[in-house]
Design brief:
Layout: E1 6-9, H1 23-27, E2 59-61, E3 64-75, H2 78-81, E4 88-102, E5 120-121, E6 130-138
Parallel strand pairs: 1-5
Antiparallel strand pairs: 1-2, 3-4, 4-6
């Protein structure tokens, strides 16, 4: 988890034709007089330089809480397995990156990178959710 965590969202850049914007950014963009001013208009020309100049438009609060690892298991009672001459059977499931709670609209809140790029979201892929299952048998 991280609190007080801000990310510079570099995916909000001027080459709008090559970027996948979050739907909310696109839907709430400026389109004409009287429309929302929450997000600048999308244009490759960018005559106002809205996407070329660093500003607080790019800095997003990215607090998050993540359930990183969870393993659940069940050992079958000996009375169930003694007839098949097995000492112990344990069934389990393990999960990685199971849940993430955040309001950050980007794909990933845990931004790493090189020392000069720390805290800059350049559109990295989110951490994969992994589900594993297993069976431990002791004879």
């Amino acid at each position: 988890s991280a609190l007080g965590h801000d990310i510079y969202m570099a995916t909000r850049r001027y080459d709008v034709g090559a970027v996948n914007y979050p739907k909310i950014d696109y839907d709430n963009r400026w389109t004409e007089d009287g429309s929302t001013n929450e997000y600048p208009r999308f244009t490759l020309r960018d005559s106002n330089k809205n996407f070329r100049r660093p500003s607080e438009y790019f800095v997003m609060e990215a607090d998050f809480l993540r359930l990183k690892n969870l393993t659940v298991g069940y050992t079958l009672p000996k009375s169930w397995i003694q007839k098949i001459q097995i000492e112990k059977i344990r069934v389990y499931a393990a999960f990685e990156n199971l849940l993430t709670f955040t309001k950050y609209p980007g794909l990933e809140t845990e931004i790493g990178g090189e020392p000069l790029n720390l805290g800059i979201d350049q559109g990295i892929y989110p951490q994969a959710k992994v589900v594993m299952g297993g069976l431990n048998i002791t004879f």
